[in-house]
Amino acid sequence: MINAGILGSTGYAGAELVRLLSSHKDVNIKFLDSRTYDKEEYTNPYPHLKNKLDKVCKSINIFESELLDEVDIVFCALPHGLSQDAVKVCISKGKKIIDLSADFRIKDPSLYEKWYKTTHNAKEELKSAVYGLTEIYREKIKSSTVIANPGCYPTSILLALYPLLKENIISSKGIIADSKSGVSGAGRNIMDSNLFSQCNENIRGYSIGEHRHIPEIEQEIAAFAEEEASIQFTPHLVPLNRGILSTIYADNKKGVTQYDLEDIYGNYYKDEYFIRLFSRGELPQTKGVSGSNFCDIGLKVDERTGKIIIVSAIDNLIKGAAGQAVQNMNLLFNLKENSGLEQMPLWP
Ligand SMILES: NC(=O)C1=CN([C@@H]2O[C@H](COP(=O)(O)OP(=O)(O)OC[C@H]3O[C@@H](n4cnc5c(N)ncnc54)[C@H](OP(=O)(O)O)[C@@H]3O)[C@@H](O)[C@H]2O)C=CC1
Ligand SMILES: CC(=O)N[C@@H](CCC(=O)OP(=O)(O)O)C(=O)O
Fold first, then answer.
1. Is the shortest distance between the CB of 21 and ligand 1 below 6 Å?
2. CB–CB of 221/158 below 8 Å?
3. pLDDT tens for residues 102-138?
4. Of all residues in the chain, what percent carry a pLDDT higher than 70?
5. Is 152 helix (H, G, I), strand (E, B) or coil?
6. CA-based, 20 to 30 A from 313: which of 40, 219, 238, 286?
7. What does UniProt list as catalytic (predicted)?
């Protein structure tokens, strides 16, 4: 049995971890950290787990808690900037840690500090963190101690682009990604602009060219292509609970055909349980992945405009957060990669 603890367990990403881990046959949840619900039943804020999870929340002081000695792995689902101490303590105690925040994703700490407008206080630990995009960094993940679980938008964009960049079919500069996210992407600490009355029946773009996921996406595009990268990224908030749909445009610099494109993606992803390719004009949709760890990818060569268009769909809370974290944990502990993640999407 793997003993696991969850920091930030009552946020939306934390709650998805709790839901997935509580039905994972190889995992025993040891602690559920929460300041707001300290000493309260976890099912008070999360009644969907009633009678299935008999656990009380506890506000954990990472420096003092003896509970840390009882676990093999810590999942950290705290807001950005709060996981650096947790990572330091876990390393010193020989525990594995999967951090769902951005604190260990960006390799260059000055870039993190610039985009996140805060200081990075674990620069040494940052060096050993592995970027947890499972399908791409599987081998490195297996032997790592600190895993930086990717952002939700980056997961949807990077899995969609990887074969094109590795095959040098598109340039690493000038890619355009237009993404739409459900409201749970913003977490449960509601902001005024995310109130039902302002999200429902409404679509709006935000942070155009300024979103914090840009350096993370560019870092990985540059790694895939082995050259400098730039992306024009526009996120939108759409009236869904969960789901991300990314539509990505790039110049077809080698003039590949629709047939070539489908063949290339088929070769790259043929053994990937969680990547489902759509061909012959079919396109993915958020409902097709909702509640699951799948990443659905649709492919289109537009010969008239000379563009390649890739469309990807994920559930932001699962493949974009908790599901990918569980997938990475499975790798760390040599379990089947889809253990605890076999749920099919919900439809309708
Ligand atoms: N939502 C998503 O789709 C995704 C989220 N992530 C990342 O996962 C992490 C958690 O995100 P998410 O679950 O959405 O966020 P939430 O805001 O929903 O939850 C974060 C939780 O952390 C706890 N917390 C502890 N200290 C603080 C603090 N000082 N300020 C605020 N909250 C605190 C809170 O619980 P309590 O008060 O009970 O302690 C809170 O509910 C973030 O780093 C986020 O970027 C990553 C990918 C996707
Ligand atoms: C809809 C919405 O607000 N989405 C969030 C996604 C951020 C998120 O969850 O960030 P990480 O994946 O980096 O942790 C945003 O745009 O800030």
1. no
2. yes
3. 999 999 999 999 999 999 999 999 999 999 999 999 9
4. 100
5. helix
6. 219
7. 152
Amino acid at 332: L
Domains defined for the chain, CATH in brackets:
2-128 (3.40.50.720), 153-316 (3.30.360.10)
Spans of the chain, pLDDT less than 70:
none
* Angle (CA) 239 242 245, round 5°: 80
Residues 298, 303, 306, 307: what is their CA dihedral angle, to the nearest 10 degrees? -10
In this structure, the residues whose C-beta lies within 6 A of any atom of ligand 2 are 101-102, 151-152, 181, 185-186, 213, 235, 237
The H-or-E segment that residue 14 falls in is helix 12-22
13 lines ligand 1 (CB under 6 A): yes
- Length of the chain equals 348
Which residue type, as a one-letter code, is found at position 254?
A: K
How confident is the model over 75-100, as pLDDT tens digits? Answer: 999 999 999 999 999 999 999 999 99
Single-letter residue type at 186 = A
User: 119, 93, 97, 41: which is closest to 328 by C-alpha?
Assistant: 97
Which residues, other chains included, contact 271 with Cβ-Cβ below 8 Å and sequence gap of 6+? Answer: none
Q: Mark whether 295 is an active-site residue.
A: no
Ligand 2 probe mutation, 98, 116, 133, 181, most atoms within 8 A of CB: 181
153, 156, 190: residue to mutate for ligand 2 pocket, most atoms within 8 A of CB: 153
Q: Which two tokens stand for residue 205?
A: 């773009």
| 146: enclosing H helix or E strand | strand 146-148
- Give the pairing of strands 231-237 and 204-205: antiparallel
Q: What are the structure tokens assigned to 74, written together?
A: 């810590």
Residue with tokens 């009644």: 47
d(Cα 262, Cα 284) in Å, to the nearest integer? Answer: 15
Per-residue tokens: 177:
């990604």
